[in-house]
Amino acid sequence: MLTKKVKKRVSFLSALLCLSVIAIFIILKSLSSNILYFKSPTDIKNVQDLNLSKKIRVGGMVKKNSITVKNEEIIFIITDFKNDLKVSYSGTVPNLFSEEKGVVAEGKLQDKKFFIADRILAKHDENYMPPELKDIMKNVK
Amino acid sequence: MLSNLGNILLFINVFLSVLIIYFASQNIKTSGNSISETIYQTTLLQTTLIFGCFFTLVAAFITSDFSLINVFENSHTSKPLLYKISGSWGNHEGSLMLWVIILTIFSFFFLINNKTHPKNYRLFTLIFQNIIILGFLSFILFNSNPFTLISPAPKEGLGLNPILQDPALAIHPPLLYIGFVGSSIYFSAAMASLITNYSEKFFAKSIKNWVLISWVFQTLGILVGSIWAYYELGWGGFWFWDPVENASLLPWFAMTALFHSLIVLEKRNVLYFWVIILCLLTFVLSVTGTFLVRSGILNSVHTFANDPNRGIYMLSFLCLMIFSSLFLLFKKYRKNNYNINFNSKETYVLINNWFMLFYLLTVLIGTLYPIFTDALTENKISVGPPFYNAVIIPVVVIFLFFMAIGPNVKWIKNKFDNLISFIIIFILALIINFIIVYFFKSFTILSNLIIISSLFLIISSLIDLKKSLEKSKFDLARIISHLSFGFLILFIGLNHNFSLEEDFNMKVGDTKSFNNYEIKFKKLEVKNFKNYKSLIGDLEIKDKKMSQIKTLNPEIRIYESPSTLTYEAAIKTNIIKDYYLTMSNIDRSDFYNIKFQKKPMMFWIWVSCMVLAIGGFLRVFQNAKSN
Predict the structure, then answer these.
(1) Which CATH architecture fits A37-140?
(2) Which residues does A139 contact at the CB level (< 8 Å), separation at least 6?
(3) Does A47 touch chain B (CB under 8 A)?
(4) Contacts of B566 in chain A (CB under 8 A)
(5) Pairwise CB contact (< 8 Å): B584 & A72
(6) Domain of B575?
(7) What 3-state class would DSSP assign to B241?
(8) pTM value?
(9) Which H or E run contains B608?
(10) A20 CA to chain B: closest CA distance, Å?
């Protein structure tokens, strides 16, 4: 027969365990629905099942002579020197956004060739490249 | 010359640390309860010399001595004096000097301020603290020496990144470091307490002010960093869940949990091992954060030049810390009875701790997850604000209710005799919420819940304030901090809900209309300043409803050394709202991208965060008075 004290402790510990399991479950559940995958234009071309509803990040270089400015949007092409992706964006471009410089755009794909960005990631240093981009550039060279 | 002086001072400091450890271990063996004068003198000398060492570096920056690589890489003769000085801790090597100074100062003050506590406990704390100091000194000497020479000495330095040339950023690192490096002292004290079996109540008394001081500085450091990000980075927000911001938040959660459970330990003599675990955890998290930032593993706005050796050194140091503290913890762990009643203040403090650990876990997982997926699956991912908002915001709602009820619960055994007053407060909060919603017409369930729960906390804290003023039995520190936290969440909620953001691509002369506003791009000027050129826009914002006209002047600055472009946001602050405007050129065309934001309650977010920290300071004074 369990004493009252032990019973109390067991129920307390099991409640705590349940709570922590629920907490971890909630964290991981929202993690899986909120992560952003990073892709290069080549990755996108090679992808089989295209998920248009999910946000992703695309990185590469801004192609030479590709920036067009319209009234409400900026259109440019991201390239990894193998494949291109057309991007439309309306919003503030970061410090060092310019042709033939690295760029990371966040948004949704419309199809395999067209991407609508809602954020262009800021970089503060000319020599700084996001680690994701570095790997892509390494593969090219 | 300065390089030699600096190196000599560093070596002497290594020697002194070893000496202190030796003296202290000799002193432990003697009977009696006094610490020998030699130890006091050596610690004083150590503190003086580490300051000397730091000032040598500052002097090198002030005199622009480019024979030091560190100065060459991070300074420039044309830089204003303030930024020459702050440049000395704005880089990896110099910031480590700041680490060691804070480690040493805390070690010194802990030694001389705790004379009522037993000798061996203080000596062991000193020993552990000096082991940590030695660890960082050797890191500086063998890997990140700020006094390394370059030959031949260059004529001119490379300059400091202009976005770092800012008064807020000059004081941000020292504040933040006092916070998370300060946590080292209760790491050492916890280890010492385990070894000497100096436990419970008195241990809590000896460290509580140190925890509070580090918490206050951590809070201020985060605040200043956040203000800087708001006006300098041009995104118009104040918190981005950037990995580095997260790294500063992790120890903050642990500290907050710690000083709440310290109250229980001091009053009721329970939760000793839990407190020890939190002490150890706080400093481990601080070092982990530093490791993640400095090793370059994380992708973030804070970029330090990376070097793999650096990461390996810090990782081994971190492992050593974790394993030795875990070893000691398990060796000394003994069962103690937790006689805690379910309905008591003790439980409520524990609830605070669970919430803090939940936040901590969420942020930790969100920050580390991309590293693991990258290593395991080569999938590159990032975890952004949506994750944190989805997990943390709903939990904050419940947390605020507990935060309001907790302080009024009695120790040991409580009876709910004030249930009716809580119901009245709740109804009051509901009414105010609906008034706000009615006037501003904005509706999401979550934002309503946030506003209701924060109002609940605010009103009950105000009632507590009134009661304690009548009784003259004061717990002002607690009330102020809880109250301002309630306000902080309320203002963040309002800010989030009623912000307005519009983007346009405009040429000079264009006019655009949206909502109740009209925006006019009047002219563009070029001006020359001492170390940069500036393109200054002149824009007019008309509030059609109030028929008010405001002129804002966003800038694009072009710096020479290093050649960098920065955008200066134009911000018009008043008590209720901020107008926030940034301008950026689109690839050298005639078009400028203009981003307009209306940010309500920004000023009050800063103020309530400040008051939160003041509450902590007040508690330190109260403690000092009662001792």
Answers:
(1) Beta Barrel (2.40)
(2) none
(3) no
(4) 95
(5) no
(6) 500-603
(7) coil
(8) 0.89
(9) helix B602-626
(10) 9
